[in-house]
Amino acid sequence: MNTVLRITTSIMGEDSVSSMLMDELLANLAAQKTLEIIERDFAKQSIPHLDGPWLAALSAGEADRNLQQQEKAAFSDQLIAELQGADILVIGLPMYNFSLPSMLKAWLDHIARAGLTFKYTENGTVGLLKGKKVFLVTAMGGIHETLTTDFLRPYMKHILGFVGLIDVEFITANGLNMGPELREKGLADARNQIINVASNREQEIAA
Ligand SMILES: Cc1cc2nc3c(=O)[nH]c(=O)nc-3n(C[C@H](O)[C@H](O)[C@H](O)COP(=O)(O)O)c2cc1C
């Protein structure tokens, strides 16, 4: 059995394309291996910004935290524990204003913690999350493939690599808001990518 952490970040609810494609990806992966799915849906529970009081809570020694600080630290610790416990991470990745949903940035700020998900060394930082597969299910209104306007995928690849998550695959639906024909093409391309990554995964499991 594989434990999957599924992170839903869209603000579009039932109309979310990234959520729909995540469902399809997970159905394909579940056909190969039993999955236990842990869900984190930002529409159901907001991820608070890592503000000053939050940082103070995390920086304080455990014994010195007041009740509010204990709650803040426990929330961040829970996000990290979910990530550490997962074999596979599936993140819905809508492009909003050329970048990532702000609550996903907040989630990343919570899980990037020195000593737990990365460490400092004399040669720079080292990611501590090892051996996990990551699928980033991206949905974009436009087509950014040949432009310099995609600040979403390069950033995600970098920050995930920073915490050690280097086995990252993108599934991308482009052109969703560019009329019915391009939308259909974008969805069909994404579905082909899902079939390909699921087939690759099947081979990895068999090897
Ligand atoms: C607030 C907002 C900002 C958006 N900004 C962009 C953008 O900068 N570039 C783009 O190509 N599409 C943009 N879109 C379109 C979304 O990428 C598209 O609707 C996609 O389906 C979002 O994924 P979702 O359906 O899973 O939420 C934006 C949509 C919203 C709601």
Describe the 3D structure:
The strands form 2 sheets. Strands 2-1-3-6-7 form a 5-stranded parallel β-sheet, with helices on both faces. It has a two-stranded antiparallel ribbon with strand order 4-5. Helix 1 links the parallel strand 1 and strand 2. The protein has one domain: Rossmann fold (3-Layer(aba) Sandwich), CATH 3.40.50.360. With 207 residues, the chain is an alpha/beta fold. The mean pLDDT is 96. The chain has helices at residues 17-30, 52-59, 67-84, 102-111, 153-162, 180-206; strands spanning 2-8, 35-41, 88-94, 118-121, 124-127, 133-139, 167-173. Flavin mononucleotide binds at residues 10, 12, 16-19, 92, 94-98, 139-142, 176-177.
Q: Which parts are unreliable, with pLDDT below 50 for 5 consecutive residues or more?
A: none
Bound molecules: flavin mononucleotide
Helices, by number, come to 6
CATH topology, which one?
Rossmann fold
Name the CATH superfamily classification.
Flavodoxin domain
The profile of the biggest β sheet is:
5 strands, parallel
CATH architecture: 3-Layer(aba) Sandwich
Shape category: globular
- The chain-level structural class is alpha/beta
The main sheet orders its strands as: 2-1-3-6-7
The average pLDDT is 96
Q: What's the order of the H and E elements?
A: EHEHHEHEEEHEH
Proportion of beta-strand residues? 15-25%
Distance between the termini: 16 Å
